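> call design_seq(struct)
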C-alpha cells in the first residue's frame, strides 16, 4: 500500500510538533482564557447596602433571522443582573440616587466557555470516539454570559424605545 506524500508529511509533522512542543513546555497548573465583553442593559435599579442589581427583561431574537425581535412571552420572569462597583465606587452613589428608577448601565462582563469534560487519556471510552459515554448525544461547547456586570457608567433611561 503506497501512502500519499502529503499524508506522510502531515503525520510526520504531527508527530514531530506534538512530541517536541509538549516536551519543552512546563505543565500548566492554573491556565485560563478570559473573554471580556462590553454590556449595555436597561432596567430598574434595586440598590441596598448589601446588593446592587438591575432588573431587566431579556430580548429574544429569531434563530433564523437575528434582526427579528421576538415578542415577550407572558410568564417569563424578569432577569436580575448583579452590578459590581469595585472599579468605580462613586457610581454606587449615583445608583443609590437612581434606586427604583429605570436606568441604562454599561460595563464589562465575561463570556465563559462551557464544554463537556475532556475524554480520559488512553483513547476511546464506551464506544464513543469523542469520549463521555456510549450514547449518541455529545453536548457541544457553548458560551455563557456571566451574570455580573463590572459597571463603567450609569445614566437615567431615555424615553420609551
Amino acid at each position: 500500500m503506497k501512502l500519499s506524500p502529503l499524508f506522510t508529511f502531515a503525520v510526520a509533522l504531527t508527530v514531530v510538533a506534538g512530541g517536541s512542543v509538549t516536551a519543552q513546555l512546563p505543565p500548566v497548573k492554573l491556565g485560563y482564557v478570559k473573554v471580556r465583553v462590553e454590556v449595555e442593559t436597561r432596567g430598574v435599579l434595586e440598590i441596598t447596602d448589601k446588593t446592587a442589581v438591575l432588573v431587566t427583561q431579556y430580548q429574544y431574537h429569531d434563530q433564523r433571522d437575528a434582526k427579528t425581535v421576538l415578542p415577550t412571552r407572558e410568564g417569563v420572569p424578569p432577569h436580575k443582573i448583579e452590578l459590581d462597583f469595585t472599579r468605580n465606587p462613586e457610581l454606587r452613589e449615583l445608583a443609590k440616587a437612581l434606586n427604583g428608577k429605570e436606568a441604562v448601565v454599561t460595563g464589562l462582563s465575561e463570556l465563559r466557555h462551557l464544554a463537556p469534560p475532556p475524554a480520559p487519556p488512553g483513547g476511546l471510552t464506551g464506544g464513543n470516539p469523542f469520549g463521555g459515554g456510549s450514547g449518541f448525544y455529545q453536548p457541544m461547547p457553548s458560551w455563557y454570559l456571566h451574570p455580573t456586570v463590572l459597571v463603567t457608567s450609569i445614566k437615567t433611561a431615555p424615553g420609551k424605545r
